[in-house]
Structures are given as C-alpha cells and as structure tokens.
Amino acid sequence: MAAELKNHGAVLSGKKRSAGHDDGAEDNNDYVVAKKSMPFFSSPAAMARYDPAAALASARHEFGEHGGVNMSIEASATFTVMEPETMRRMFSGELGPDRDFFIYSRHFNPTVLNLGRQMAALEGTEAAYCTSSGMSAISSVLMQLVSSGENIVASRTLYGGTHALMAHFLPRVANITTTFVDIHDMEMVRNALVVGKTKVLYCESISNPTLNVADIPELSRIAHEKGVMLVVDNTFSPMFLSPASLGADVVVHSISKFISGGADIIAGAVCGPASLVNSMMDLHQGSLMLLGPTMNAKVAFELSERIPHLALRMKEHCNRAMVYATRMKKMGLKVVYPGLEDHPQHKLLKSMINKEYGYGGLLCVDMETEERANRLMNLLQNYTQFGFMAVSLGYYETLMSCSGSSTSSEMNAEEKKLAGISPGLVRMSVGYIGTLEQRWSQFEKALSRMQDSGLFKN
Ligand SMILES: Cc1ncc(COP(=O)(O)O)c(C=O)c1O
C-alpha cells in the first residue's frame, strides 16, 4: 500500500494512509481549506494586492504515491477502513477528510479536494469544492443559501442558463424567486434587497455577453448592510479579478471555460468559506451531497494539471483581446471591450484588477443586425479561418457566437433589450494560437470582404 513520502515542508504533502495506520491518529485539518496562511478576506481593505499566481505556487503540492511529481489519481468510488468502529465514527462526523478519512466519492474525494485547494488559492477563499459543471455549482450554492419562500436579487445581465434557472426553474421547483435589477443602479439594488427575505445578491464580475463590469466592493457593502451574501460568477475573469478580495462572500466558476482551456471538459467550482462548503456536503441537508453533481477524480486530476499555466494563458488571451479591440475600433467597428477607455466601466475595472494580466479575453462586436453578424462569423470561420463559430469561451482558438440567438436565447426580447443584448452582438473569446499578426490579417481579410459586399462601411 501507499508509502509514506518524505516531508518536503508544510505546503507539500504526499501523505497516504498505510495498512498499519492507526485510524484517527493523524491530524491534518486542511481538507477543504486552501492553506492555513492563505489570505481569507474579511474586509475589502486587502483588495487589489491579491496575487493568485503567488497563492497557487504556495498551495500545498500533492506528490504521487510513488514519489511522482504529479499526484496520483484516487480513482475509487469507495474507501476501506481498517477497523469496523471507524465507519461509525466517520458517519457521525467525528472522522473526516481533514484527517484523511474518506467514505464515498460523492461526498469527498482526495483528488477532487486537491483541485478544490487550488481553486481556493486561485480565488483567495478559505475553501472550495469542485462540481461536474458550472451550472451545478451555481444551482447548488443557491439552493444551499436560499430556502423556499426566500428571494435572490440578481443582475439582469447574466449567462442565459443562470437567468433561466432563476427566472423559471427555481420559482417552479423551490418557490425561490428572483428580482432582476440593473446592478449599476445602486439605488435599485438597495431597494430590491429585502431584509430577512433576500438571502443572495448575485452577479457576474464581467457579464455574459455584454461585458458589463460589476462594482464588487460597492455591491458587497450594500449586500452586507442588509445581511445578504454576495455571490459572484467569476467565469470570465480568472486570475485578473479576485472577487473575494473585493468583498464577495462566494465565488462560482464554470471551469469549462478559461480554467480548463481545452474546450473538452465541463466542470465547475464553489469557492467560499469552509462552513459553506461543509454545509453543502452535509449528509442530511447538503445540496452537493444530496443532489450529487460530483466531479470525477480523473477529471479533477486533468484540470489540476492545467491550473499551473492558467496565468500564462490568461496573459495572452488578454493581450490579444486588447490589441484586436483597439484595432477593430480604429477600423470603425462598434466594439465592446472593458480594456478600452470608452467602456463605461473601464476605470472601475482598472481599479479592481490584479496587475500584469489585462482586461480579459472576451470582446464583443456589435454588427447591429443578426444577418450582418452571421455574415461576419461565416467569413471569419469559412473564408479566412480566424476562428470557430461555437459557443463557450476560454479556448486556445478564437470562438465566436451571436449571443442573442445562442447563449442568451433563453431570454425573451424584452429581457434581452434590458440586458443590452443587440440582435447583431457577436461575442468573441480571443484565442492565442498562431501569431497575433497572422490572426489579425485573417480578420482584416474577412472584413474587407464584408465591405466589398456593402455590409460594412467605415
Ligand atoms: C458566465 C457563465 N457562468 C456559468 C456557465 C455555466 O457553466 P457550465 O457550462 O460549465 O455548466 C456559463 C456557460 O456555460 C457561463 O458563461
């Protein structure tokens, strides 16, 4: 069975339980906690100095069972005990993953826990746990924090699936209602929060697809005044924006996007206080435990091998998006990019970001009509090979979709109008493979074809 590995210091752990192990003798209580010395932001005063790259580098590193530089995958659904009494102690909560006791992988799994530690380090939260999709992370956290008869206040510019969850699914199955607001109108937000009834204020740090930026410190202040938790979806801005350092209580992710980077895995995470993660795993009342959107250990291993190069990837996504947005604007296109000074929340984002990355890998081009949007995307994929017509984001190739008729199609015409989604809005997730100039010349070639056919004038 597992050999005890050499101790490489506090942040390194290859500890495995061995056959002769005395059940209950070990004490290692950091199972959902990133690292005891990790900053856990109780006040926004610590904001803007958070460094996810440094935090990730000092998070505990798991070695493989045979001393491999990479951890071993704990591919077991169930776990043995050495003494029958241990099972009872585990089920009573006396022994748990904090002491390396595992019951069953829908509850806790060591490999998934390790990815959770990385996610907690990335977001600067006390704990994190990973799920089978971004939607399961979002729905589980909402169902844990909000009960029947209670309320959510949410931004009206959200990913279509999240919007549908709140507008249609939660009211029907759980009697949980949502009031949608303009999160830039602080008076409207304040008035919507009802003390005692509203449990969550929910927004995306950078919204899908309109790229509005949430004023996280201010939203956090208003929410906390009313005893409400601020939950932020940080899918569009890993590494360069750290909502917990700005006052968010919980950060959710669709790992399927930038964090995965390969457009080959669907996954999610909930990052927040250890008490929240533990409550979601409660055997009687935990939404993750009882709804069961578990991440597979093999998937967790794959993802944990990609997190070390997330910083490098984000820098290049951001760099290219900034260059293309600047050039597109110069060409006379209607571009939405929070890195451009004419973006309504440019200054706000600048005041919140972690330095050295930029302003994100997504930009939007508003072609005004769906016909022109489709023509542009068609040329960019099938004539010049600039990118692919596909939903999702964070891939190494550029992905483009017309949001109104795809990822936001769950919204009705009025909701789209309120969210600022024009019928010709093309969302681009800017990739980084190929050279920047090679890719730019592909864009220019497609646009001049649009000009030839009279569909674009500058
Ligand atoms: C901002 C945002 N949050 C959440 C989700 C849902 O994540 P997943 O597809 O991993 O369930 C998506 C997209 O799918 C998204 O764009």
TrEMBL record:
Its cofactor is pyridoxal 5'-phosphate. GO terms for molecular function: carbon-sulfur lyase activity; pyridoxal phosphate binding. The keyword Kinase does not apply. CDD domains: CGS_like (cd00614). It comes from the Eukaryota. Keywords: Pyridoxal phosphate. Pfam families: Cys_Met_Meta_PP. GO terms for cellular component: cytoplasm. Residues 1-26 are annotated as: Disordered. GO terms for biological process: transsulfuration. InterPro entries: Cys/Met-Metab_PyrdxlP-dep_enz (IPR000277), PyrdxlP-dep_Trfase (IPR015424), PyrdxlP-dep_Trfase_major (IPR015421), PyrdxlP-dep_Trfase_small (IPR015422). Belongs to the trans-sulfuration enzymes family. This is Methionine gamma-lyase.
